[in-house]
Amino acid sequence: MITVRAPATSANLGSGFDVFGAALSRPADVVTVEKADRTTIEVTGVGAQYIPEDPEKNTVGAVVEALDAPAHIHIDKGVRPASGLGSSAASAAGAAVALNRLYDRGLSRTELVPIAAEGEVVVSGVAHADNVAPSILGGFTITSTHGTRAVSADVPLVACLPDVAVSTRDARRVVPDTAPMEALVETVGNAATLTVGMCRSDPDLVGAGMDDPVVTPERARLITGYDDVREAAFAAGATGVTVSGAGPAVIAACRDGDRRRVAAAMLDGFADAGIDARAYQTRIGEGTTVLRG
């Protein structure tokens, strides 16, 4: 029996659509696997009632198939589904690391990334790795046609999750098919700034690099109260604010001394819009870790 902790993640970070990702120190899923003749899945925890236990409809089913590793799998959800914090990716990442160890497949963490990404097809229709990569590898990750690169970084963050749901499929439908050249140039410049900021663990550069004029404005319209929450976070000292992944979570970069104030301001922003929310005072953290086994 193997038990692992797989962290929540924030994908895109504004300027890095389908490319950037960051592991969060909290929240996280706990995944336990045990060898079996056929695969069964049990889900408990936050939002468990909304997650299918049929292996063909759960993200971990594709991981089991790819690794040829049937198991009894228990997923204790700490990452709410449809949150924009990589809930489906955390389950897939945890299963990939745990099953690789349980069956002694000998694959590296980097080799497990595309396997875990296949699980994302179940929820979004696309095998994107911007969430599973940081959940497996930790830190700040860049995923491209050249593979995945991970950078260790230490940047304070606040992830504010409103009590509403935005599905990944719906959020992908609003992504524009085209963009003006000026917007693309601006996005590339911001992405470069954010990357340098991560390499330096500089929250000011990271925040400055989060702006994105192409995808984020469209996804922000799906989140009631987003503009007010963003404004409140900046007023409280955030260095950058954007939609986390597909949303509805909103992620803010900040300095350590401002993190609690930023979290409170974001909660107030959603409250003013009549929406309950939860704020995680978090930071860029490590990837999936083995707890037992």
TrEMBL record:
Pathway: Amino-acid biosynthesis; L-threonine biosynthesis; L-threonine from L-aspartate: step 4/5. It holds the Pfam family GHMP_kinases_N. Residues 197-267 form the GHMP kinase C-terminal domain. Keywords: Amino-acid biosynthesis, ATP-binding, Cytoplasm, Kinase, Nucleotide-binding, Threonine biosynthesis, Transferase. The keyword Transferase applies. GO terms for cellular component: cytoplasm. ATP binds at residues 80-90. InterPro entries: GHMP_kinase_C_dom, GHMP_kinase_C_sf, GHMP_kinase_N_dom, Homoserine_kinase, Ribosomal_Su5_D2-typ_SF, Ribsml_uS5_D2-typ_fold_subgr. It catalyses: L-homoserine + ATP = O-phospho-L-homoserine + ADP + H(+). Residues 60-139 form the GHMP kinase N-terminal domain. The keyword Methyltransferase does not apply. Its EC number is 2.7.1.39. It comes from the Archaea. Belongs to the GHMP kinase family. Homoserine kinase subfamily. This is Homoserine kinase. The lineage of its organism: Archaea, Methanobacteriati, Methanobacteriota, Stenosarchaea group, Halobacteria.
